[in-house]
Amino acid sequence: GEDVEQSLFLSVREGDSSVINCTYTDSSSTYLYWYKQEPGAGLQLLTYIFSNMDMKQDQRLTVLLNKKDKHLSLRIADTQTGDSAIYFCAEINQGGKLIFGQGTELSVKP
Amino acid sequence: DADVTQTPRNRITKTGKRIMLECSQTKGHDRMYWYRQDPGLGLRLIYYSFDVKDINKGEISDGYSVSRQAQAKFSLSLESAIPNQTALYFCATSRDAGTGVLGGGGYTFGSGTRLTVV
User: Fold this and answer.
1) Closest listed residue to residue B23, CA positions, set B78, B90, B80, B85
2) Nearest to B76 by CA among B41, B16, B32, B37
3) B68 and B49 Cβ atoms separated by less than 8 Å
4) A62: helix, coil or strand?
5) Which residues partner with A4 through β-bridges?
6) B52 in Cβ contact with B68 (< 8 Å)
7) Which of A30, B18, B34, B68 has the fewest CB atoms nearer than 10 Å to its CB?
8) Distance (Å, rounded) from C-alpha A99 to C-alpha B115?
9) In this structure, what DSSP letter does residue B105 have?
10) How many CB atoms lie within 10 A of CB B12?
């Protein structure tokens, strides 16, 4: 079956790096995604990575993909209080539907 | 105006009542989805529709029904609401199943409807 797992909470200090981890089970996923949900809002796409890549960098964001271990991580450099949100890992299944992890609530302390 | 609009934003209803959540979109997308979000469980798919004549059950469809009235409108109904349907409900659209930006990256979410069943 399809399953995406994340830890529920992460707390960091402003200026530190945050690393949010995700594991998935569907090895046929071609793309994996990170979505961000700010309080009271819907989900917005943060970044994505194609399954034949092992790293993607976009400004303060770095996505690492280990296909062998089916492990995905999102690193946020120089974390700011505005980065406080819930971060969802997601994969596309065979039928073209997004399967989400439980979401990791990132708390950034000043 | 938002690309995906959900109404109402908040609703409190009593057990046993029928309630409808509405979603409309201006993206021109064919595919529409209803998800519910519960703390610690992420988003789970309730129903989805790939075009006006197409309705499919998601992983947690029991107790829900949907109607795709037009390409732009997809409503979710709870025929007889129960307290464990208290959740945040999201509507989303996408252009196709594709991949990358056109696939999961191409999903547009509404702002959500917070439903409380007492």
Assistant:
1) B90
2) B32
3) yes
4) strand
5) A24
6) yes
7) B18
8) 22
9) G
10) 10
pLDDT one-digit tens code per residue, B58-103: 989 999 999 999 999 999 999 999 999 999 999 999 887 655 555 5
> What is the DSSP annotation of B6-61?
EE-SEEEE-TT--EEEEEEESS--SEEEEEEEETTTEEEEEEEESSTT--EE-TT-
Q: Which two tokens stand for residue B3?
A: 């690309």
For residue A44, the distance in angstroms to the closest alpha carbon of chain B comes to 7
Residues of B in contact with A43 (CB under 8 A): 43, 90, 92, 107, 109
H/E stretch holding A48 reads strand A43-50
Cβ atoms < 10 Å from Cβ of A21? 17
- 8 A C-beta contact, residue A79 and residue A20: no
CB-defined contacts A:B, below 8 A: 70
pLDDT at position B99, please? 55
Q: What is the pLDDT of residue A15?
A: 97
With 0-12 CB in 10 A as exposed, 13-18 as middle and 19+ as buried, what is A51?
middle
Distance of CA B16 to the CA centre of its chain: 20
Tokens 């056109």 belong to residue: B102
Nearest chain B Cα to A46, which residue?
B105
